[in-house]
Amino acid sequence: MEATTEARVPQKLTSKGRATRARILExxxxxxxxxxxxxxxNEQLRRAAGVSGSQLNHYFPTKESLVLAVIEWQAERVLAxxxxxxxxxxxxxxSLREWAGFYIAYEHSYREGCTLGSLASEIIKTDLDVRADxxxxxxxxxxxxxxxxxxxxxxxxxxxxxxxxRLAHLLLSAFQGGMLLAQVARDITPLxxxxxxAIDHVQTFAVLPAADAPEDR
Amino acid sequence: MEATTEARVPQKLTSKGRATRARILExxxxxxxxxxxxxxxNEQLRRAAGVSGSQLNHYFPTKESLVLAVIEWQAERVLAxxxxxxxxxxxxxxSLREWAGFYIAYEHSYREGCTLGSLASEIIKTDLDVRADxxxxxxxxxxxxxxxxxxxxxxxxxxxxxxxxRLAHLLLSAFQGGMLLAQVARDITPLxxxxxxAIDHVQTFAVLPAADAPEDR
Lengths: 217, 217
Hints:
The structure is a homodimer.
Chain A: H1 2-8, H2 15-35, H3 42-49, H4 53-59, H5 63-82, H6 93-105, H7 109-112, H8 117-123, H9 131-154, H10 164-185, H11 189-203
């Protein structure tokens, strides 16, 4: 994703120009996350980022260009977070539980939902030409889980009968659906239940480590 | 839900008035489902339903009143569909598979997503005062699965160790999240994987019927 975004930032920008663009983008992402795409207008954004209308127009001439940049910004953040050491490439059930625990304890989960999923849901039916970018981001996200599950198989931690692609779709769907239900209910329980049950399902494929195997007792 | 909606239809409406209101509502639901809330305007709705601006204003004086009525209309339809004989109160794994199979084969799934979930996602961050109505609808929906799973337990079809509320949240979250991912990818696979894996998980709690139990062989 980094390479893609870099490519989209006009190469002629000075370092000051890049900093201004980044500041606008950060405020746009924050406004869109808390208020939604439709309620975010240029005036709010200009005030929040401390830029003029012509500056805003220079970096993001259309709402589509702004929304597209925010999608990339949020996608990079969510993918970088999932790739962080904290989750150890999702090579174990414990790393999946660590991941679920983070979002269950995260107060924004049931207030504003997923930074990327809530934005996707809000605009998927609009005329904004952003579907391919969203699809690419979710595909990469799903692949992080799939790759982790495949490694768990190679390491003998889960059975060869598990279908990593199917389980990865279960994990990401439970996350996105649980986030929506938690937001609507203003209660984290739907997300907590969905994530714990999805991980319980991965666990049904767990292979006992040799030390715990019945034949060693 | 029926009782609630009836109560909201002004009692003084004549049968002709009720028919006009119902026609507007049906077209509003259709427009909102295909184009989204924000892209649906009064002029399109007037043309689609064949009513005047003053008629529209008479039945739905504000966009909030219209969106609220559409939420109730979609919630009634989705709940009635889930309560239909086809799914036999979700008292068996087969009924859950029948349900998943319907949505996996339903072409609107990956085009417009869930009639209620896509609407909820689009407006949950707006100022429209509709959250309680949405929460009520999703709660009833989740309870249909929970009640079915509880009956499966009483009938000895699934183990007492299963947590019906948690599994119900998994099923509804996998459905909502899978619908979003399928829409974004324009491919049914994420929904299919998520639903099949969620039902596979319910199946891990299945108790063998007496005829199939090992001791009877």
